[in-house]
Amino acid sequence: MKVLVTGTSSGIGRAIACKFISEGHNVIGMDIKDSTISNELYTHVKKDICSKDLPQILDVDILINNAGVQNTQDDIDVNLKGTINITEKYGIQPNIKSIVFIASASASTGAEFPEYAASKGGIVTYMKNVALRVAKYNATSNSISAGGVITPLNDHIINDPKLWQEVLNETLLNKWASAEEIANFTYFISVNNKSMTGQDLLIDNGEALKSNFIW
For the chain, how big is the Rg over CA atoms in Å? Predict the structure, then answer.
């Protein structure tokens, strides 16, 4: 199948692209940065997802909206408006089979930076709107709200023993997810899944559930 993944230069997006490649799919990656992926099944498009001049990519089977920024003045424009831009261009068409949005646990908890949380909450709502519109193509639309994920974006926490232990203590399972684990979830809900649509998966190692009972 033809799979379009945004934000493939590193982290979760790169892991997702590599997962689909390993399963034999043709992957088109879109990012404002260059890619380190070298494979005959991979084509890289260096482009901003907010661009008004997106390239023509016909008959996308699976769209994975992963590209985004955090704690910048552009969180709403990139994370939300850019995602809508990509989805309306490549996802709302008869060949589509699945669309997956990489949101964030902050979409439901409201934690983290204000505009970032708002942008991810908007993505989850938009995902449901898309589910309503692609149903006529027998396609699914879902999102993944990940908590902490081990990626270069979080190196300043991962490489600080004090901060690292503090964030791990906020989870029930005392760990963060790997980018590869999120990629596996993404592959499952876009390829194996045929019936779940309009749903948001919270993958946070129990962070939202953790509470201290005081009597």
Answer: 17
Q: What is the pLDDT of residue 213?
A: 67
Homologous superfamily of 2-203: NAD(P)-binding Rossmann-like Domain (3.40.50.720)
The DSSP bridge partners found for residue 13 are none
Residue 105 is which amino acid? A
**Spans of the chain below 70 pLDDT:** 213
Q: Which residues pair with 145 in a beta bridge?
A: 202
What pLDDT shows up at residue 111? Answer: 86
Distance between CA 72 and CA 58 in Å, rounded?
A: 32
Model confidence pLDDT, tens digit, residues 160-176: 999 999 999 999 999 99
Q: Using one digit for the tens of pLDDT, what is the confidence trace for 31-43? A: 999 999 999 999 9
- Tokens read off for 153: 């974006």
Residue ranges of domains in the chain: 2-203
**Contacts of range 200-203, beta carbons closer than 8 Å, 24 or more positions apart:** 200/103, 200/107, 200/108, 200/124, 200/127, 200/142, 200/143, 200/144, 200/145, 201/142, 201/143, 201/144, 201/145, 202/105, 202/108, 202/145, 202/147, 203/105, 203/144, 203/145, 203/146, 203/147, 203/177
**208: Cβ contacts below 8 Å, ≥ 6 apart:** 105, 108, 109, 147, 202
